[in-house]
């Protein structure tokens, strides 16, 4: 790796608060932003920043990730760069339903990273697009600390791929908490 990465899950969102799956651009781009709890999480995180200062910031264009990224960008004087490949994993026909649907999808994920049950975006496709972001940044930049603001499932899938583990094992990782940061790359 030529860069250091800070992989950040968005703060607690209105969808989290309501227990809903919001994974489509039609719903996620303009609605279901941060909850008051998410705003408070970001305030605390930024007040007690414990990571290297980011030099570049890319984010999913969903409202909850854009709002999260905007708070960090303002703190460090960074430009926002929307990157659609960092979007939430699409959960197909489970879109808009209750978040207990995640467990059904993850059970299929554990058997087959290429499955499309319920019309979901396959784990393998998520890993591919997320890794493409890293690959492109590695080709264009060196020596930077790059903050990527995305969503829980895509970030867990990315970390599993970067570690070289089987994609069927992505849910074996401890779930990434809202407003959490996971460093990756150069020490």
UniProtKB/TrEMBL annotation:
Active site, UniProt feature: 10 (tele-phosphohistidine intermediate), 88 (proton donor/acceptor)
GO molecular function, one term: phosphoglycerate mutase activity
E.C. number(s) listed in UniProt: 5.4.2.12
Hydrolase among keywords: no
Keywords tagged on the record: Isomerase
Residues reported to bind substrate: 9-16, 64
Pfam families attached to this UniProt entry: His_Phos_1
Signal peptide span: none
PANTHER family assigned: PHOSPHOGLYCERATE MUTASE FAMILY PROTEIN (PTHR47821:SF2)
Official protein name in the record: Putative phosphoglycerate mutase
Species classification: Bacteria, Pseudomonadati, Pseudomonadota, Gammaproteobacteria, Oceanospirillales
